[in-house]
Amino acid sequence: MSRPLESDRDLIRTDVRAWLAEQEAKELLRFITCGSVDDGKSTLIGRLLYESKQIFDDQLAALESDSKRHGTQGERIDFALLVDGLSAEREQGITIDVAYRFFSSAKRKFIVADTPGHEQYTRNMVTGASTADLAVLLVDARKGVLTQTRRHSYLAQLVGIRRFVLAINKMDLVDYDQGAFDAICADYRAFASRIGIEDWAAIPVSGLNGDNVMGRSEATSWYTGPSLLEHLDAVPLDAAADAAKPFRMPVQWVNRPDQNFRGFSGQIAAGAIGPGAEVRVLPSGRVTRIDKVVTMNGELDAAVAGESVTLTLADEVDCSRGDVIVAASDPPEVSDQFEATLVWMADEELLPGRGYWMKLGTQSVTVMVQQPKYEINVNTLEHLAAQSLALNAIGVVEIATDREIVFEPYGVEGSSPNRALGGFILIDKLTNATVACGMLHFALRRALNVHRQHLDVSRETHATIKGQKPAVLWFTGLSGAGKSTIANLVEKKLAARGRHTFLLDGDNIRHGLNRDLGFTEADRIENIRRVGEVARLMADAGLIVMTAFISPFRAERHMVRRMLPEGEFIEVFVDTPLAEAEKRDVKGLYAKARAGELKNFTGIDSPYEAPENAEIHIDTTKLSADEAADLIVEQLLKRR
Amino acid sequence: MRETVAEADRPVMLYSIGKDSAVMLHLARKAFHPSPLPFPLLHVDTTWKFKAMYALRDKVAADPAIKLIVYKNPEAESKGINPFDHGPVHTDMWKTEGLKQALDTYGFDAAFGGARRDEEKSRAKERVFSFRDRNHRWDPKRQRPELWSLYNVRKAKGESIRVFPLSNWTELDIWQYILREKIEIVPLYFAAERPTVERDGLILMVDDERFPLDGEAAVMRKVRFRTLGCYPLSGAVESEAATVEEIVAEMLLTTTSERQGRVIDKDAGSASMEKKKQEGYF
């Protein structure tokens, strides 16, 4: 418990209820302090606590005895000892983690994240800054703007802090010289404009003596700006900006006490909501209205960003933990590939290609991180080539999630950052350690503002009407292996049994849908992706689809497999040895390829990656086309 | 709390019957309303709490929407461990060991506690989700970074997490909330005439006949308690404050900090809480 300001004591004596009401109305500002080990940061915070009368007499007595034992100020009180917590760091004389302090002024409550200055502790600073509205950067008046000052400015800005205070400390040691102060300001101004920090103020202080900490100091009569506390009382808060944004609420928990109540609990991340508001449930895209805003203290007419509520919806729609309820008219994007900044926080380096858990809002997915596009040198802000990211490294990467997630770009010019839907952590799947944090920039795929429309006639309905189970029979094999021939026979046999089918043939598709594509590796991948999408749509419509494409790469066949529900992708490997296919050469293509007239021909100068676990393996040297077709039909129909 | 319930297998709420527990329980009811609490309460009992605390505990447990588990370390019980004869061993066996045993016995993998960062220096660095290894040990170097409001609740079998939903509350926040939400707290927080004796500069309440008086007579004093634990270890303060408002006023105008009345922190100087935490104390 901390003591009230001196000025409040009379009110507490006479009307404590009125005083308590004043306390409840106070706004909350969260800020971080950063500086290097010797900038006197802990002393300044200790001074803030002391001057705002946040220290009890017994704590002060302990402080005095501690000061004599561990202190660095001789017989004087060492305010830093009020702040440094763990015994390990007392021994080392440095702060080694993020500590949170609480104090208040007449106008605001403050939570201070005290973050360390040592280079190896970048991760702690990023942690402390992630929830802060403002950063106080400590600068030693004798040393001026150091590399660390620039690094801390950059890191704070990286996690979305827009307001900065340059606390030029130890002014007592430069005789409160205005010239020293002005020189440091000019130096920082040049740097701030270079990295785009617009909102900053410099204040000359002495943590040791208390100059310009609470009130303005006589010693700096040339300084006309506010004291540190006056400034902290006046800066705008991010919470106000969040409330003005479109509505967003990540669903934390489905609240279902019995059959008669189904609510969705979460903390409102942005905007406001009330009964009747039209909302969209993402990623499904289903639109409905808010029925009630439920709390234990009664139903609300309106709730805003920061409040934890339970929403009931007008329609029975699928919605579970990880979904996001958003303003129907202004939804965020949905995607599965992004560019992001990563801050690596673990001793084990990033392994590009390995799957990590990604937690963003209440969504948990598997994510794969590509090799970094570049690493950022936090001291020089240069972009460096990088194979990986080590502890405290910052890099820009492309990431792919295993399913679509709802997101917003983290940084927004001129507004508060989208922390809830733009910030994420990565978790090692083996150790469960939090290994990185990240901020999403944008989705890599275009057309992502197109939201999926919910369809009332489902794929199950389509299939039921046709009385069959949809499937994609994916024929793969060398050119001339017999894919089209066998697929054609299979379709005839299925049609004869009254099955609804469709055959997508490679050559035919290349005359229409894919006539813009050539035969480079990239074009062949896109060719297969499009065919996969078309096959999936047809399967959604309830059809049994056959595709006859060489589809030489395992990765692309796997991609199509993942587009479809489990069990619907049936890979048919039409296995004809190259020599046999070349001997048949029905279309005369092998001859052309051998003559060099056809480039990138599979089997000749482009590889064919045979399936490893095809559902159906047809050896054309042993089976006739008709026998093969019978076998496939039999396999298909015995599926349950 | 919702994050924990959504991601942990067997959450539990540690219920100490004090004012912070009362606030935490109230918040939990709000978080899950209209559902009943999706986890039980666990009281790690030392058999030395104040009678008034047991009375409130039993009243809370009478609510059909609440399941309360009371756990007493059988070894401490059989050996008759008590604060008068056994000193620091009392807290160690009943509370620290008792808690570990209870969590292991029921297989709880996440436990809510009411600790706040403003209470004590080493608490200021505590995470909201504090990770404990298989032996319930707290390793300050292995704590996970907590960014934004994203909490990593994943852990291996046998490991557990202590969750502190009140981390960023101050003591004044607690009292304001009790007042605003009309939360019932143990009457010992309010001043009343109580039988007391002085020991080592602390005013202790003679709550039952187990208090060894050696012929000394208990003195009636108008006192209240700022924190509640085992009654022989909880120092009272002389006070006239009989309402929450009066407590707040009195507290704000006095000059001693909250944990002052507790014997427990003084065992090994100011680093003692940190040491206790490493050993598994909550």
Descriptive notes:
By secondary structure, chain A is α/β, with parallel strands linked by helices. Chain A folds into 4 domains: about 5-235, Rossmann fold; about 245-325, Translation factors (Elongation Factor Tu (Ef-tu), domain 3), CATH 2.40.30.10; about 335-445, Translation factors (Elongation Factor Tu (Ef-tu), domain 3); about 460-635, Rossmann fold, CATH 3.40.50.300. Chain A is about 30% helix and about 25% strand. Chain A has a 7-stranded antiparallel beta sheet, with no helix packed on it. In chain A, strands 2-3-1-4-5-6 form a 6-stranded mixed beta sheet, with helices on both faces. The longest helix of chain A is centred in the last third of the chain and has 20 residues, at about 520-540. Chain A starts with 8 loop residues before the first helix and ends with a helix. Chain B has 2 domains: about 1-170 and about 270-280, Rossmann fold (3-Layer(aba) Sandwich), CATH 3.40.50.620; about 185-265, no CATH class. Chain B contains 9 helices and 11 strands. In chain B, the strands form 2 sheets. Chain B has a 6-stranded mixed beta sheet with strand order 3-2-1-4-6-5. In chain B, helix 2 crosses helix 7 (about 170-180). Mean pLDDT of chain B is about 85; it is low at about 265-270. Chains A and B meet through helix 1, helix 2, helix 4, helix 6 and strand 2 of A and helix 1, helix 2, helix 7 and helix 8 of B.
